[in-house]
Amino acid sequence: MSKSNKYYSKGFKYLVFSEDESLFKYAVFLHKNKNGAHFDVRLASAADPSVVYSWSAKKNPLDKEYPVPMRRVKDHPEQSLSPDTNYTNKNGDTSNYKTLAEGDAELVEIDKTAGLLFETDNRNFRIIPQRGKRYLFHEID
C-alpha cells in the first residue's frame, strides 16, 4: 500500500499543487452537527472547483496567533464553499453552518516543510502539512 493510499482512502484526493495553479477560493465555517461544534476550512482551485479540499479544527483558526491543528476530512463538492445555513445530509441529519470568512486566495509559495502560503485581501495564512491527515493552519500578520 502506497503512502498516499494509507492516509487518503476513498473520498480523499491527495493534495497536489503547482505554481501554475495559483488562484483559489477559500471559506472558514463554524459547523454544528450531532458531533458538536467545530470549524471547517475549505479550499478549492479556481482551475478545478469540482473538488473542495477540506479540514476540520476544534479551535477557531482565525482567532489564534499560533498554528491551529487541523485534520483532513473527506473532500466536498463545489457547493460546499457556500452552504446553506442548514444542511441535511443523506441520512437525514441536520447541520448548521455559520460563515466566518470566505473569498479569493492566491497561492504565493509552496514549500515542502513550511507548507502552502496564501494571500487574500485581508489575511494571509499557511496550511502546513504534518503527518498523515494532520495539518496546521497559521494566520500570518
Describe this structure in words.
With 141 residues, this protein is mainly β. The chain has one domain. The protein has one helix at 3-7, and strands at residues 23-33, 36-45, 52-57, 68-76, 86-88, 94-111, 115-119, 124-129, 134-140. An eight-stranded antiparallel beta barrel has the order 1-2-3-4-9-8-7-6. The chain starts with a helix and ends with a strand. 20% of the residues are buried.
Secondary-structure map:
Elements: H1 3-7, E1 23-33, E2 36-45, E3 52-57, E4 68-76, E5 86-88, E6 94-111, E7 115-119, E8 124-129, E9 134-140
Antiparallel strand pairs: 1-2, 1-6, 2-3, 3-4, 4-9, 5-6, 6-7, 7-8, 8-9
What are the salient characteristics of this protein?
single chain, 141 residues, mainly beta, eight-stranded antiparallel beta barrel, 9 strands, globular, disordered N terminus
Structural class: mainly beta
Largest sheet: 8 strands, antiparallel, barrel
How many H/I helices?
1
State mean pLDDT (0 to 100 scale): 78
Give, in spatial order, the strands making up the sheet with the most strands.
1-2-3-4-9-8-7-6
Give the tally of structural domains.
1
Name the overall outline: globular
